[in-house]
Amino acid sequence: MSPDAGEVTVLGAGIVGICTALALTERGVKVTLIDRDEPGQATSFGNAGIISPWSVVPQSMPGIWQKVPGWLLDPLGPVTVRPSYLPRLAPWGLRFLWQGREQKVRQISSAMDLLNRDCITLFRRHLTGTGHEDLIRDSYYVHAYRDPDAARLDTLDAELRQAIGADLERIGAEGLRSLEPALSPEFRAAILIKGQARALSPGRVGKVLAEKLQRMGGEIRRATVQAILPLEGGGWSVGTDQGEMTAPRLVLAMGVWSTELLRPLGIRIPLEAERGYHVCFTRPGITLNHSVMDADMKFVASTMEDGLRVAGTAEFAGLDAPVNEKRLKGLVELAKRLSPDLNSTEYTTWSGQRPSLPDSLPCIGEIEGFPGLIAAFGHSHYGLMMAPKTGELVADIATGRKANTDLSPFRALRFG
Predict the structure, then answer these.
(1) How many CB atoms lie within 10 A of CB 4?
(2) Chain-centre distance of CA 12, in angstroms?
């Protein structure tokens, strides 16, 4: 460790915080990683496991405003809003829809490319030497359609992917049966996104990388962070349920809870808690060879170490809303439609909060007016795949390395 490398405290031990701590440690920084939960076992645990350099399509796209009402009215649809929460969500929702203009979408897509293009390489580098390199497996992303006319390669999302080098292929019913025989024959075409990977256990990836961090000299503390305050003369105070700590520099990587800590500092960021759900069928009786998205219902299924995971749906109900059992039951029903041979009798369930900003981009970088406070939160649906590059960028910022790229799309205060 170089004598002037300094110290950094990372708040939040999800996959973004873990990758950031690893990147800092590699640069000779003394790192303390703080979280109330075990590393990588909260929101980072529950995702669909997709690791894609070609994930450059934001959530808000042209014409989405026409689809949202139908989604909200469908009990099994991909989006639900608790009626009592709608007035609070409305300003965020309008900002979200405004981001769906084509010109804006292209700008956002370019920024997403920066964070995702090296995700497979960086994850494999982090896993090298752990003995668990096999947790990342090469894969296609199969977008399966019931209506073959809807499986097209002339759409904006296909164009965005192909523009950065993605290898896409359209296949018909016969090709799809050959590739994924467990799928329902209702699916009659698919778009294959090649050159991807998937995590066989996102939670175990987090655990393995946290253990690597400790072997490299990083410290992990279990504590609930309650407040952060700037100190006179520089540095930060971190109030926790285990007492007060001080740090010369802080990285805020606490997902949806990040803005709760920023609000007392007068910082307002339009981040919404978007609850996601998954169901894992522990004895599914079928295997999917790749990650498969039901393109009509917008959920993803993937075979993992512990079974067949079906993940998706977005629920806006506030940070403290109870789990919506109807959403979990809905995922079970959707999974049965995906594969008629699925054994759906034995399963576990999970829910967690995604930190979602209107433009599908996270906040990355030192927050203006608050020296030594670096944002690394708000990764929405893309936290797993964006985590390694986010860590590299934050480590460069914290150690004073000049970035050769424009990070303005990720400014924490970009929404005014």
Answers:
(1) 8
(2) 14
pTM: 0.96
CB 228 within 8 A of CB 370: no
Instruction: Please write the tens of the pLDDT for every residue from 341-379.
Output: 999 999 999 999 999 999 999 999 999 999 999 999 999
398, two tokens? 């914290």
- Give residue-wise pLDDT tens across range 89-134: 999 999 999 999 999 999 999 999 999 999 999 999 999 999 999 9
Residue 302 makes CB contacts below 8 A (sequence gap 6+) with 48, 49, 50, 198, 288, 290, 291, 292, 308, 309, 311
Closest CA to 145 of 191, 205, 212, 94: 191
Distance, in Å, from the CA atom of 208 to the CA atom of 128, rounded to the nearest integer, reads 11
Annotate 315-338 with DSSP letters as a single string: EES-TTPPP-HHHHHHHHHHHHHH
Q: What is the pLDDT of residues 243-290, one digit of tens each?
A: 999 999 999 999 999 999 999 999 999 999 999 999 999 999 999 999
C-alpha atoms less than 13 angstroms from C-alpha of 208 in its C-beta half-sphere: 21
236-247 b/e (C-beta count within 10 Å ≥ 16 → b): bebbbeeeebeb
Query: DSSP string spanning 356-380?
Result: E-TTS--EEEEPTT-TTEEEEE--G
Determine the Cα–Cα distance for residues 89 and 238; give it in Å rounded to an integer: 30
Quote the CA–CA distance of 101 and 109 in Å, as a whole number: 12
Q: Which of 220, 219, 166, 221 is nearest to 191 (CA)?
A: 166
- Collapsed DSSP state (helix, strand, coil) of residue 282: coil
CA–CA dist 384, 38 (Å, integer):
17
Q: How confident is the model at residue 5 (pLDDT cuts 50, 70, 90)?
A: low
Q: Which of 208, 199, 252 is nearest to 227 (CA)?
A: 252
